[in-house]
Amino acid sequence: xxxxLQTVQxxxxxxxxxxxxxxxxxxxxxxxxxxxxxPMPPQEIRQLRAQxxxxxxxxxxxxxxxxxxxxxWESGKHSxxxxxxxxxxxxxxxxxxxxxx
Length: 101
What we know:
This protein has 101 residues and is mainly α. It has 2 domains: 3-32, no CATH class; 42-99, 434 Repressor (Amino-terminal Domain). It is built from 6 helices and no strands. It has helices at 3-17, 23-32, 42-51, 56-63, 67-75, 82-94. It is elongated. The mean pLDDT is 94.
């Protein structure tokens, strides 16, 4: 996060805690300060799955999607978004353990 966004977030938190800013405005500012996730290209998804020695079906299970969805991601017909993209980045940076429960 940039220094400017850190300052904006810190200031908004102070205003909210002081009762000067309402919760809706504070949440809106916090949302603006989130770092967007970069897209994950098909070859990176394939590589990530192979790195963990997972079949497409097991990979799909960990990500709570259908096997056909993983096939479409890996072929480039569709791109992961939302929670799926977040889980893929979590897997990439933290490994398989956080997804096992």
